UniProtKB/TrEMBL annotation:
Residues 29-49 are annotated as: Disordered. This is Discoidin domain-containing protein. Pfam families: F5_F8_type_C. Residues 539-675 form the F5/8 type C domain.
Amino acid sequence: MVAVLGAVVVIAGGTGATAESGWWVATATPSPESEVNATGEPERGTDADGNVTGYIDAHTHMFMDLGMGGNAVCGSTWSEKGIADALKDCDRHGVSILENLTNSAAGRGILDKHDTVGWPTFKDWPTYSSFTHQQMYYKWVERAWRGGQRVMVNDMVSNPGLCPILGIVAGPNKYSCDDMDTVRRQIKATYDLQNYVDKQYGGAGKGWYRVVKTPEQARKVVADGKLAVVLGVEVSEPFGCKQVLGAPQCTKADIDKGLDELKGKGVSSMFLCHKFDNALCGVRYDESTAGLLVNVGQFLTTGTWWNPTTCKEGQVADNTVIGGVLPSEIAAVPGLPAVLPVYPKGPHCNPRGLTELGEYALRGMIKRNMIVEMDHMSAKAAGRALDILEAEAYPGAVSSHDWMAEPYMERLYALGGFASQYGHTATEFAAQWKETKPLRDKYGVAYGYGTDMNGFGGTAAPPTDAAKISYPFTGRDGTVFERQVTGERTWDYNAEGVPHYGLVPDWIESLRVLEGSEIVDDLAAGSESYLRTWGATADFEPGANLASGAIASASSTERNLLKDLKPGNAIDGKTSTRWASRWGQDDAWLQVEFLSARQVGKVTIEWEQAHARQYRVQTSLDGKRWRDVAIVGRGDGGLDTVRLDRPVSARFVRVQGVERATKYGYSIKELGVFS
């Protein structure tokens, strides 16, 4: 850091097309530097109701250049030596197999070359369709902040399957492929960037880039008009929790140690799985060529290919995947066959859901008041995760970039969760905003975007004629924007879409052109909406399970010489034990008795395979006169959460069977009763 401070020059007007001064302008900026091309004081404070205002990007990867061994993304987010070092030429990148395979818009062959020159000309990069060039240089992020963005979730990211492939085709790797090593490296870089920006603004705490650990810190940062940076984790093998030939490679102790470490470093949100089936859960598959590459990565790191089945009627589907012949350059990687498996007809469902270790990790996140990222879980895993979150009444659930199966969206909002939409082209984003708005209005939730910038999804393409913008334009808070300039390169949204993060304000202006102020106002309420979810998550305290310590009894118990299936097993706090009724009884029941009458508002039932198709939840004050407080007519097993229309006073709570779903009796792993 000393080296850069010796090189900075004091520029009274800051860096940009016009000279201005104020708390939002750096007093000492490296020279040369990228321009910001924004004029005007960023909005500060809260509204009359105490709500903060500002856009939220709930899914970014600022430091992907430090992930996947250091070869996935060319160019750095910042450098102590300045922009010429951070965005220098990609010398080893002339023939980039990964770039050519994934950048379909460029129209290159797999071994074609592209111009590797970065600063100051940037002839061929970054572009909206490229996954392999830096898009989040910190001055570009500064322009997005000046455009009204107030919350950014920075997900630490890597992939241990693609990492060794890149080490061969683009290597040698600079860094370890271990996911947790990468997470630590990227977290450190996030804090280092905060310090770097602070020194340009006069000292600790004065810069616009603020890493936050709590929703209270975030509210203060947003109220001050600065950018609150939330730390998240999106890796394929958190805590070493990979699976090899289906066998988990981590323990519950590893999970606890890892969660404690992340919490201590300020991480607030996390994905349980990403791209690969791991020891915690199955994934929602990638489609097309990207899916083919990820499937190869899964095979290399786990010894297993994806194993999709054709979805049965009523199942929530995952994405449909492809098999086939690998490109020869990829097939040359040692250990790979030339052909992928042949898959059944779609739609495809991943049969792998949330594992026992995955449920332990999920409950560990709840225990530590962390936000659970629902995206990338298989539909089966996400459904089970939502079952658990609903049973706990835990609000900390987020879908940050359109990777959760859409049928689950209302369940997420009902919990108090938050969702943001992938940063598609303006026309597509506006259409999806309009389509999904009635559901958000139902739950009083605002909107956000998840650009996945520096991820492997691509950014917004050039707009249609109807979505083109005029320069200069004025943002929602009065800031005026000219075309963004970096070195000798001037970027025009109308021609280039969103090639880097600095054009996010231009993209928002394009949304305004399409849909008027309503969509912009909805997005501007996004930070408040996200912080409400985070605040409720941080404040969450689990309710006491009234069934714990109660007296359990049942109409009957299955006789089994090998297993104890008594009623008390259903309230012992362990899903490894269970109560089972005698076979063939549709009217069998299980009940709990409290020492005194208690208010009952919710009942949870963790069924074993032998579940009820129809059942009643009943309460009683004396154990003789029973009252139906809930009737379930389409039970499908798993974890049921039954909420009463209104709390009732009861000394006895009973699950009364009406119709069995199997030829056996009824079997309950755990019964929970909550006020």
